[in-house]
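Dear all,

This email documents one entry for the complex benchmark we are building for the journal club exercise. For each entry we list the sequence lines for every component of the assembly. Then comes the predicted three-dimensional structure of the complex as a token string, followed by one or two observations. Please use this as the template for your own entries, and keep the labels exactly as they appear.
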Amino acid sequence: MTPTEPSMKISVSGLRAWFGTNEVLKGIDVAIPARQVTAIIGPSGCGKSTFIRCLNRMHELITGARSHGQVMLDDADVYASDVDPVLLRRRVGMVFQKPLR
Ligand SMILES: Nc1ncnc2c1ncn2[C@@H]1O[C@H](COP(=O)(O)OP(=O)(O)OP(=O)(O)O)[C@@H](O)[C@H]1O
Ligand SMILES: [Mg+2]
């Protein structure tokens, strides 16, 4: 990496996500730079919230939901067996569209 390239905070590769048999993320590859604002834009239902829930492992809390692929945060694998999802979610927060009941 040259000094002029921004460092990547999050790197996603081959990310797929399902609700049951419905595959809603079909192989996402994206790198999100540190110290910049990155917007995810798309029509309702295209998978924006699902994508964010895969970054902080909230997707796996939904019954019947699963994901596959790699998410790196600061060069550490978010899905590694030694990662505590609760501590991860402190670092990768999200604001919900609707309040959770
Ligand atoms: N809990 C769920 N159970 C089953 N399917 C779901 C669930 N949540 C979302 N989906 C489906 O997954 C797909 C992606 O939904 P998601 O909420 O990620 O879209 P979005 O881009 O955030 O939409 P919006 O702009 O309306 O917030 C949609 O087809 C949606 O119906
Ligand atoms: Mg949404």
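Observations: The pocket of magnesium ion (ligand 2) is lined by residues 48-49, 97 (CB under 6 Å). Strands lie at 8-19, 22-33, 65-73, 76-77.
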